[in-house]
Design brief:
4 copies of one chain form a homotetramer. By secondary structure, chain A is an alpha/beta fold. The first copy, chain A, has 2 domains: 125 residues, NAD(P)-binding Rossmann-like Domain (Rossmann fold, 3-Layer(aba) Sandwich), CATH 3.40.50; 164 residues, Dihydrodipicolinate Reductase, domain 2. Chain A has 12 helices and 13 strands. The longest helix of chain A has 16 residues. The radius of gyration of chain A is 20 Å and the shape is globular. Chains A and B meet through β7, β8, β9, β10 and β12 of A and β7, β8, β9, β10 and β12 of B. Chains A, B, C, D: Catalyzes the NADPH-dependent reduction of N-acetyl-5-glutamyl phosphate to yield N-acetyl-L-glutamate 5-semialdehyde. Chains A, B, C, D: Pathway: Amino-acid biosynthesis; L-arginine biosynthesis; N(2)-acetyl-L-ornithine from L-glutamate: step 3/4. Chains A, B, C, D: It comes from Paenibacillus gallinarum.
Chain lengths: 349, 349, 349, 349
């Protein structure tokens, strides 16, 4: 690795962007050439994020495609949905590699995107180029790719928790219920009454019930894996904490399987993957056990009484659910070990 | 009401006991004659609970059945499971009215109790006398009763959220999944590593998956209401907050029902009840909206795509889930308005 | 008390306003005639505060002085600083009694107000009429008053903690340092980045160091009590919690006084007051011990090594620091027992 | 660096021990040879700390001095006060290098230790060998040392915040008041009622006022720096958060100094140090800005009105206040760059 990969981060003043900086700053093969924010260009990034003072305090640039094309190899777009639809095509056309953290290129069907996101979709020509970067499932597609669409936080926790059981025929994919819970950072850095500290502290809320834009993403991937259309019931809740997602998933068993059957299937499925950890029988992961790390931890509870299994999957929504997986995708894209620059232990307690 | 009802509270140093004191202290028809703790008798209750300093700082008594029989009319037993089995029969035999907040008299079948609670059950002769005090459902049984078994916190939130839909035939009771979340006070006041602040803060955990002792209580009542055996999948989680329970419940629709159908059925079902509030379409209750109050708030999300409804029910676990409902039961037992001494607004924020 | 006192609450959609509703709703001598919000008139208050659903869901009115003058006896103005300066004079001129919860009438010197608040002050003619409502200190002035300026949250905790020691000559008032900490609700209901949940959670911040507008209020009262000008060093911090203020205060001892001397002096000073509680030697109050109540709890630590005392005073900032004390002032103004409608126990845990 | 330094960690199941593992696991020059816990030897460390599953799940060893002397170069003793007094001398006598994280070797005067810690002190012969490892102040002493006593968390935040001002003559060291606040992890991993989640959540508490064992440590160092005996008033509080310490410090100015004077003096004093960051005028650090990192951030507020300065210093109590500084000391001891293995950005949000 004689030459470092030069990257720009667009959307550096959001939580996804600043988490990219946390990891990429120490990534041995990457150089952060430019941190970009359309809204606050010209000021030091450390002004809005004092924790970066004296470490990363370069000035925020505005978006300048020509300049990026000259100076960097790859752009991370940690931009809101509706912004990436327009920005990413320009970056691609300028010959830049792109890893997009928005939801704008995850759904292959533009009409589906419009129905759930309430924005106009990107053009099909770009949607078609996007490689869906759920690393443990579609990692081989990432190798050598030049445009990766990074998965959503809820889909990451959910899909990693469901796919091995579906592929192994342990569960019936036609009756899956997903009860998901997220820390508040998932809502981004924009202040609003719902996330105002006194409103959110000591509170537990459901939101967007049956309406969350991650539903079609989950269904698209599950359908691909199951080989037939899959619909799911999916509920999202906010937990009074900053980071972490737990997906609690319910599915009917297709046979008299035990906890150990699930454990064995999942351990084998994720055998060569660094970031998925399977809990032993009777032990379920808690969100704090993956805090600030790229791990996804999964546990099981088979219930003979009801013929169902409960699968519990946790991630840090900003890491494995956003910036961490984006870097994992970069590693896979470039042919580096997937752990490069990501091998930090969870912060505990 | 010329003469006040004299009550003793056994287990005054737990969260259920101290919450009974908070409400009963201002109850117009009640006099707290004795606060009892077997472990710390002799010291002022305000020593362990400084928030009571100068308000309720009477000395804690030990358990003395004869004395209670002479001095009080009714005993609240906020004692741990396994203690009430032995204590309550003595109180009943001594002619005292009892409202028991433990789980020891909720299950009518002693064998079922033993299977889930891992303690020996109470004798059938006492189990048979217990009136199950889910106020909004079995309130008429409470009138004039002398021994009430107060429901569990999870069952209260869950059953109030499910029963009207089952009775009205809106949902199929054979395939119910309940994803429940509780604040940490539900675990009681006993310190342990799991509930140590640095372990529980910024953390979300599942526990006792498929094993929680409230499962048979929920199933017993649902079976009674449905007229046939009902089994449910039930998962419990801990939220990093002190108070509050949310039950998120999933069931298949039995027809093409709308949110409004649910709203109408529930509003009618709870028409004359003070403490159940039904949210309008597209609005779901949050736990903070019932904090420190006796309310149970319920909202709905019908999903045509999957043919299921999601029902969301919240309570304060220490109030409607314990002390508040116990006092509501006292009111019903004595023929007082059910709101007496309970008509406090939720504390917000 | 045959006729209830009819009140209007202006600013009903802030935390102070909604807390007034929580207490006044159950106040035996008060009727809430009108809840007023200039910004959201016409909609039900329960729309913005769902915890009030079915209890207090009257429509919010706009400000109409003539209508108020006809319909109510007294107005609580829980309006922001800079709004009350203009609104309160109109209410007074219309013959209404007023209890103002803003800071606009606390400082007797308009120039001082302008220097710290950065707004134009109210006219002197109105400033002169305002009775400063620190109930335990100036309660006698409230009796029969028609316009009360309710103290700030920090000044309430601080002044109740300092005045008895100054009056008794235990401490040197010329070298007082106050280190104050507040829950986030003190910042009001307006969302902003500083109070965005992910920014404030698991965080402890200092703010407005030496610049807080409560400094001149504290100094004005201490100067009045000491009989000579007093200046203090005063620092404010935000604690990741919703409610509660602690003032930790440092002062040089004027003699070889002990903890017990302080306890004795304070117990005597507050002998007939319901809401101040003095802790015994070696015990200091925590904010949770007054949560949601009108109490102010105070403890002491004399340090012979350094010749200083540390005085610790806690209140709930929205109750004793705002709405609760406002109602206490109403009670004193009307000649009712000061505990009327305020005798709720702290909510614990 | 051909050969790695082999280390053992005694007390691996406490928060200090597990944080040592988090950093040392990635330290380029260190190999963790043994993780030791006297209480739970024989089981995998990941059993008690599931976040380590699959990363560090070696078995916990018991204490075996002979084995350690053979296998490792250096021992970190993250053991409770009173344990290190006996253990560390044995390690030293066995020829091992030691970095002790307890308080047992910080005070040079055994009698002082006994007075504050209520344990028998270590023998003078060992106390005399201990190098006090406040890296930015006494770093030169660490070079080549074989036994370092790692500073306390409160002293670290406090001393780094005070010393440059004292050395430069900006403040009068005879009248310093320190108001300190800590996250709950500072109390260790032992569960007890005080730290039980429902008791500590939404609560702010003072504790050990004027009695904290870190007082003599602070005074010893300040006396050394000032060249004459210094006493301080020092109060400790618990904040409802897991990590972080803020010391808010008050001292009289010795002249008409400005904020900028302080900023200049501190920037110069810490010019070549990696982990101390000075905030600009009018900006004060918050604890979250150093979360999970080894930074100490400091800000100032000079108050002309009172002739005092308020100095605000924050650290992560488990990192710069314990494990991080211990590794910084290791680096200094071994002649490595002080940032080695510690150059992680704070985790934000």
């Amino acid at each position: 690795m004689t030459q470092k990969c030069k990257v720009a981060i667009v959307g550096s003043t959001g939580y996804g962007g600043v988490e990219l900086i946390r990891f990429l700053y120490l990534h041995p093969h990457v150089e952060i050439t430019s941190v970009i924010s359309s809204s606050t260009s010209g000021v030091s990034i450390a002004e809005g994020f004092p924790h970066l003072t004296g470490i990363v305090d370069q000035k925020l640039d505005g978006i300048d495609i020509v300049k990026m094309a000259e100076e960097v190899d790859l752009v991370f777009t940690a931009t809101p949905s509706g912004v990436s639809t327009k920005l990413v095509p320009q970056l691609i056309d300028a010959g830049l590699k792109v890893i997009d953290l928005s939801g704008d290129f995850r759904l292959t069907d533009g009409a589906e995107y419009e129905a759930w996101y309430k924005h106009s979709p990107a053009e099909d020509i770009y949607l078609d180029q996007a490689v869906y970067g759920l690393s443990e499932i579609y990692g081989e597609n990432a190798a050598g790719a030049s445009f990766i669409s990074n998965p959503g936080c809820y889909p990451t926790a959910t899909l990693l928790g469901l796919i091995p059981a579906i592929k192994a025929g342990l569960i019936d994919h036609r009756s899956i219920i997903i009860d998901a819970k997220s820390g508040v950072s998932g809502a981004g850095r924009g202040a609003s009454l719902s996330f105002h500290y006194p409103e959110m502290n000591e509170n537990f809320k459901a939101y967007k019930v049956n309406k969350h834009q991650h539903i079609p993403e989950i269904e698209q991937v599950l359908s691909d894996q199951a080989g037939e259309p899959v619909t799911v019931t999916f509920t999202t809740h906010l937990v009074p904490m900053t980071r972490g997602i737990m997906s609690t998933m319910y599915a009917p068993l297709k046979g008299e399987y035990t906890d150990q059957d699930f454990i064995d299937v999942y351990k084998q499925y994720y055998e060569n993957r660094s970031f998925v950890r399977i809990r032993e029988k009777g032990i379920w992961p808690a969100t704090k056990e993956v805090f600030a790390s790229n791990y996804c931890d999964i546990g099981f509870a088979v219930d003979k009484r009801t013929g169902r299994v409960t699968i519990i999957s946790v991630i840090d929504n900003i890491v494995k659910g956003a910036a961490g997986q984006a870097i994992q995708n970069l590693n896979l894209m470039m042919g580096w070990d997937e752990q490069t620059g990501l091998n930090f232990l969870p912060v505990y307690p």
